[in-house]
Amino acid sequence: RGVVAGLGAAAVAGLVPSRLWAAAIKPDDASALLVIDVQNCFLPGGSLAVKDGEQVVPVINKIAKSFANVVMTQDWHTPGHVSFASAHSGKKPFETIDLAYGKQVLWPDHCVQGTDGAALSKDLAIPQAELIIRKGFHQDVDSYSAFTEADGKTTTGLAAYLKARNVTRLFVAGLATDFCVAWTALDARKAGFETYVVEDACRGIDTQGSLAKAWADMDKAGVKRIKSSDIA
Ligand code: VGL
Ligand code: ZN
After folding, report:
1. 0.80 exceeded by pTM
2. Ligand 1 contact via 179 beta carbon (within 6 Å)
3. Dihedrals phi, psi of 174, to nearest 5 degrees
4. To test ligand 1's pocket by mutation, which of 41, 56, 104, 110 has the most ligand atoms within 8 angstroms of CB?
5. How many CA atoms lie within 13 A of 90 on its CB side?
6. Atom of ligand 1 nearest to the CA of 83
7. Active site residues per annotation
8. ipTM (interface pTM)
9. Quick one: which pathway (predicted)?
């Protein structure tokens, strides 16, 4: 038992404020990193650019070195997708509409199948990534989550894949914190995974209070909020 264990015991005993000591988290074979939607449309110059989105790339590349299992996602819409403002006459991006499955934020056209905007960032350097899940490809249903489409029932197959591979612990990073990252993390909890969001490996869109709401929802659902420096 070395210095770290000693310091930990001191923290537990109340001698060291707990915020000064946190155990490093070491990803094991039952852990997977989910890299959400690090695609050109969400990066500078993209049609739905997330502020400072490019800053997640080096952080994700660094933490990915600690993971044997990495899954990436790609938002992958049809032309004229229901989530595009341009598909609804008189509607502008960031307005909302009511669809059969609930409230839908309308977006600029983005991540259209096969376009350069839909491509993953060329700066991602994660050669061991084993699966790319595409989502949002049904014309009339959006899918922020990597697990379940916005109708709340159509599955992408990701939970079954991870369970078949004996993965129980998920670390979520990418874009955008308040949409695809948050919905993925919430669904991960619903599917029974231990779930961490690596906050400095994410950036948010923040429309109509969405970022604060996303963190509150994730906290309530038992999603653990960590920093990349917490990962060994
Ligand atoms: C996303 C809005 C629309 C995301 C995808 O990746 O968070 N946000 N489509
Ligand atoms: Zn989308």
Report:
1. yes
2. yes
3. 125, -150
4. 110
5. 1
6. 3
7. 37, 135, 180
8. 0.99
9. Cofactor biosynthesis; nicotinate biosynthesis; nicotinate from nicotinamide: step 1/1
